[in-house]
Write a structure and sequence with these properties.
The longest helix has 20 residues. Helices cover 38% and strands 18% of the residues. It has a single domain, classed as Spore Coat Polysaccharide Biosynthesis Protein SpsA, Chain A. By secondary structure, it is an alpha/beta fold. It has 8 helices and 10 strands. The strands form 2 sheets. The protein has an 8-stranded mixed sheet, sandwiched between helices. Helix 5 runs parallel beside helix 8.
Amino acid sequence: MPGGDIELSLVIPAYNEAARLPAFLDSVLAYLPTLGLAHEIIVVDDGSGDATSAEVRRRQSDHPQLRLLRHASNAGKGAAVRTGMLAATGRQRLFADADGATAIHELPHLRAAASAGAAIAIASREGGNKVVKVSGMRKFLGRWFNRVVRLGAVKGLRDTQCGFKLYASPQAHALFSLAQEDGYAFDVEVLFLAQRKGLQVAEVPVDWTEMPGSKVSVWRDGMKMLRAVRRVKRRWRRGGYEAPAPRHTPLSEPA
């Protein structure tokens, strides 16, 4: 639930991100203090087999606002974000991908949308005059997926999958308490629930750069997400979101 003094919580899910996380984490640690916000940074290590947690611990002594949570085993990106969002204490809660494809300095644009009344502000690789560096095939398949999602579940949003989203605290806690998708489709599920509950969602164009080392297969994971969209809609019709979902994601370190 909301914390008394923390204005911003940043949640970073990480699975075998020892190579990509450090650069983004260092940029976050350098940038957030310049905003003058009381903040916390929560890295959720989703059962990594590499030095992801070690990279976080190496920075904790100099940065007491940096927290590490570790899943006992790999549970999925959605599960990792959910763990971080429910452990966060900030009045605003930002989720950001560990690869830094969306730089942390895009945060003020999302905060401006929140100040204008949005309960949720999502970064978008569509619209505006922002720079998006991405391969042609990934752009084509990404737009195809988002078009299908708009027709089937989430209305009016051009990009549901950009890994940079800001939530007001009460809405973050309510939505992630209900969310049940552990994989990449968690974004669609949470936005689906937000729209069904009448929450205002603002889409904010950002600069975005495709980073090497992605674990996402647009074909394989795209099909999984489309099946998950059907699952989410079926769950909603059957009343499966009427109460918070039970949690089965053990931590190897407590919150």
